[in-house]
Amino acid sequence: MSSEIYNDVYTNGIIGPKVEMIGPVADGGKIRFLTTPGCWGPMITPTLRGGHEVNVPVLVEGADIGDAVAIYIEDIRVKSKASSSGVDQPVEKAFIGDPYVAKRCPVCHEPWPEFIVEGIGQEAIKCKKCGSPVAPFRMINGYTIIFDKERKFGLTVSRDLAGEIAKSASEYAVLPANSRQVSILTFGKADIVGLASRLRPFMGQLGTVPAVNIPDSHNAGDFGCFLIDAPHPYRITREQYERDLTDGHLDINSVRAGAILIAPVKVKGAGIYAGDAHAMQGDGEVAGHTTDVTAELTVKVNVIKGLTLEGPILLPPEEDLPPLTKPWRKDEWDEVMKLGRQYGIEPEPVAPIQVIGSGPTINEAAVNGFKRTAKLLGISVEEVRNRVTISGAVEIGRLPGIVQVSLQAPIRILEKINLAEIIIKHYELPY
């Protein structure tokens, strides 16, 4: 058992209980991840069996099924010098059922074919067996973005510069030595030129392994539904979909430095894994993808015994909370108490909490979030909806089906489920 573990080893796109884990790390220990770029690189790499290339999971000492693990995000540092992304379109006949998972050569039909990279552009990745272009996705409208030295902002580049970057794609992506992906910078896309954006890095993948072996990109209620009775080896049943996923693939832009993610433990040892870091993203990831980067992530982990969760809880940085969910400060609460005394009412101390909901669509994800919140707090769904309406919000994490259900929850309830102390400390509440 170690108080700190460094992790620069990656899966072939599959996570679950049968994937060999490293560790354990001590309860209260730290994990430093060197993560690879997430969506696009693994998507166009024919040998990877998921839409990402995440780190192998890390066992946590003392984490048992039915517990939860609090993951404190201490730091995320972007290593890549550039990134590329855009709207995707699957290539006909280059997959069976799911282009993220069951890749094959569209010509010779070799499954998960070995490949070579010749030149740059969208047809540069070729089947080693027959020589045909083999990437299962094309980028319809995309861009290449280069970052400043301090990693404070980025600027989309011209076609000529994108082409030069494509020739040294791995170097600009700063791909880790153990990564097996083809950098998406190889495509050399430049449909948007001269657009500046601030960097605000966050983790698209962070959490615990599911209780069934599945593609990493599908460990969520929206993408996970594609696995139900799928025509490939990673099919699952509806029961497994509803029971075994942990929603580690969130793409919520508040999963960043200063946040605490509380994840369910569904296999012994939890299996903390990370990946799919992004340089920036607005709510919803509406293009389907954003700026994937190599990153260094440092987290601290603490086991919360007996807190049984169906999906994650997020305690984002205070500035990321919706306006009505922001914590009460002493001067405000004094005024609330004064109003209560005027009418003979004792105001109930509350604290911000954000429950993640997931599902095939945004509406289904919201309903799922309401149900998870009701079960967690031991109140009715109707009460949850009322509390969210006047003291919270429903925010879109990712289209098509990840939401954040925020509300002010009674401290007395949070105490019963061992969450009050961590939330009060995180938000420096005045109670």
**Biggest pleated-sheet summary:** 10 strands, mixed
The end-to-end span amounts to 37 Å
Q: Give the full name of the CATH homologous superfamily of the largest domain.
A: Acetamidase/Formamidase-like domains
The portion of residues forming beta strands comes to: 25-35%
User: What count of helical segments does DSSP give?
Assistant: 9
Q: What is the overall pLDDT average?
A: 98
Sequence of secondary-structure elements? EEEHEEEEEEEHHEEEHEEEEHEHHEEHH
CATH architecture of the largest domain: Sandwich
Entry summary:
The protein is α+β, with helices and mostly antiparallel strands and 431 residues long.
Write the layout of secondary structure elements.
Layout: E1 2-7, E2 14-15, E3 22-35, H1 40-44, E4 58-60, E5 68-78, E6 82-90, E7 115-117, E8 125-127, E9 137-147, E10 153-156, H2 159-167, H3 169-173, E11 196-198, E12 202-208, E13 214-215, H4 238-244, E14 260-264, E15 272-278, E16 295-304, E17 313-315, H5 330-343, E18 350-358, H6 362-377, H7 381-391, E19 393-398, E20 402-410, H8 411-416, H9 420-427
Parallel strand pairs: 1-3, 3-4
Antiparallel strand pairs: 2-13, 3-16, 5-14, 5-16, 6-9, 7-8, 9-10, 10-11, 12-15, 14-17, 17-18, 18-20, 19-20
Helix pairs in contact: 6-7
